[in-house]
Amino acid sequence: MSLSEFNIIKQYFSSISTKENSPNIHLGVGDDAAIVSTPENKKLVVCTDTLNEGIHFPLNTSAYDIAYKALAVNLSDLAAMGATPKWFALNLSMPGINEDWLTGFSTGLKQLAGEYQLDLIGGDTTRGPLSVSITLAGHIEGVTALMRSSAKVGDKVYLSGCTGEAAYGLACLSSAATINDSDKYFVSRLNQPTARVSLGLSLLGIANACIDISDGLVADIAHIAEASQCGIELDSNIIPLPAIADKEQARQHALSGGDDYELVFTVAPARQAALKQLISQTDLPITCIGEVVAAPGVLLLDNGRSVGLSRTGYEHFNNK
Ligand code: ADP
Ligand code: MG
Q: Which residue of 40, 89, 103, 233 is 20 to 30 Å from 249, comparing CA positions?
């Protein structure tokens, strides 16, 4: 690695850490590998996610937003397990050295890392097409994580927030029209998604199964159904819609648009009271959108009648 690449790491990436986690970091950026320990009685939880230019973010996305989103999507994966995020590694491939870009990128990374007191403990920096891959690790208490496979027949299905907003943000960016003030909200949902980390933690002991919505509401709910060997019926009239004028477009985005990073989770009848209390303590809207049933698959119901879906979600190798 050339000196300038070492300097990049030193200047932009070696300071993204906070004191709070330090006792468990024995070695961070600078050696061949990092060394960390997890607190006693906790299990290590690890996830990784990659953002490629033109696929996971549009070509003209700011460096700040690319970094923010790369970390947010990983935070969302740990949120969906009910885990507490702690450390991350950054694999950055970029076509060349652009100091303005690196400043924006490291500022976005530092901002979100600071919010969650995360430490950057290592990574790799290479020349190539713009691609950001983050590996995030954290821990979970000695209780069962929120797995996709734990839904039970009779559970109610809940959604945090609203899906389809990020997809509408992308549609705004893709259209020739200029972005107006109300569009800006949707674009920010695309570029700076909010991982539901504290909700995930609160759902431990309440939810049976959980998943974060990255590829589309119906597509990701289908993963719970499949992993749990059951079915899920959704009430299409209850699913929250993005606040846009075209209701059919809103519905399509809500059902199949990707990139929202909301949580879908299932809750047994015996845990409804605990959930109700949790809902009363949070500002985040949580909506019951369906129920877990025995017959496999995901069924979308409109006044009890099954309605079809033309496109359920984003799939990298199939959908184009
Ligand atoms: P190696 O030759 O062993 O792959 P590198 O020269 O790639 O090591 O990296 C040197 C140190 O800098 C390592 O500790 C590595 O984890 C860290 N590092 C490299 N790139 C990044 C990055 N983008 N963010 C954080 N740390 C990084
Ligand atoms: Mg390396």
A: 233
The Cα 101–Cα 19 span in angstroms is 27
CATH assignment of 5-141?
3.30.1330.10
Counted residue by residue, the chain has a size of 320
Regions of the chain short of the pLDDT cut 50 = 319-320
Contacts with 234 (C-beta within 8 Å, 6 or more apart), sequence order: 157, 218, 221, 289, 290, 298, 299, 300, 301
What pLDDT is stored for residue 264 in this prediction? 98
Does the C-beta of 5 come closer than 6 Å to ligand 1?
Answer: no
User: For the chain, what are the domain ranges?
Assistant: 5-141, 148-306
Structure tokens belonging to residue 94: 């970029």
Q: Is the distance from the beta carbon of residue 13 to the nearest atom of ligand 1 less than 6 Å?
A: yes
State how far the Cα of 85 lies from the Cα of 200, in Å rounded to an integer: 11
Q: Is 92 in the pocket of ligand 1 (CB under 6 A)?
A: yes
pLDDT on residue 90: 97
Using the mean position of ligand 1's atoms as its centre, give its distance from the Cα of residue 286 in Å: 41
Looking at domain 148-306, what is its CATH homologous superfamily?
PurM-like C-terminal domain (3.90.650.10)
5-141 and 148-306: identical CATH topology: no
Mutate which of 3, 109, 125, 135 for ligand 1 pocket (most atoms within 8 A of beta carbon): 125
